[in-house]
Design a protein that fits this description.
- This protein is mostly helical.
- It folds into two domains: 78 residues, Up-down Bundle (Four Helix Bundle (Hemerythrin (Met), subunit A)); 58 residues, no CATH class.
- The protein is 78% helix and 0% strand.
- Helix 1 packs antiparallel against helix 2 and helix 3 runs parallel beside helix 7.
Amino acid sequence: MTPIFFLLFAVMAVVSALMVVLQKSPVTSAVYLVLVFLSLGGFFVLLHAPFLAAVQVVVYAGAIMVLFLFVIMLLNLQRDVDDGLHHAARRVFGWALGILLAAQAFLLLRGSWALGPRGKEPAALVHAQGNTQVIGVRLFGDYLWPFEITSLVLLVAVVGAIVLSLRRGRSTGVEDAP
């Protein structure tokens, strides 16, 4: 039964990821990104990591996507305008970059180390304490500073989006609300 669910989540993730890239509307792309996050949560459930699955759904599919949609709607992004040569150059550059990334992924997955290193904790410790406690100790112990820096980067991104939208409102003649 697990291989069937894995294939279902894998197809959902790949198709949704392709739709994220292929959609012209940023809001539609963000909705497809939610589907990618949900399928990743399904992978975590299949790996017997229910805490990570719940965090994936609540934090990424919930909070982070609300933040992305807020910024997209605040910036009032429209569809790409086809402006001739500039648009064609971006398209060629995008395809070249995509081919380069696919070649890199092929070379990485070809190696025997493609799955990456295992965790430092032995399996017996994870089963005894539970994966939630082991993740918490690692996240708020060894990785506390990267965790805090990531939150600051997200805060700067939101402030930057607000500043850009206020500047755009002033240049188009739209007045700020009192």
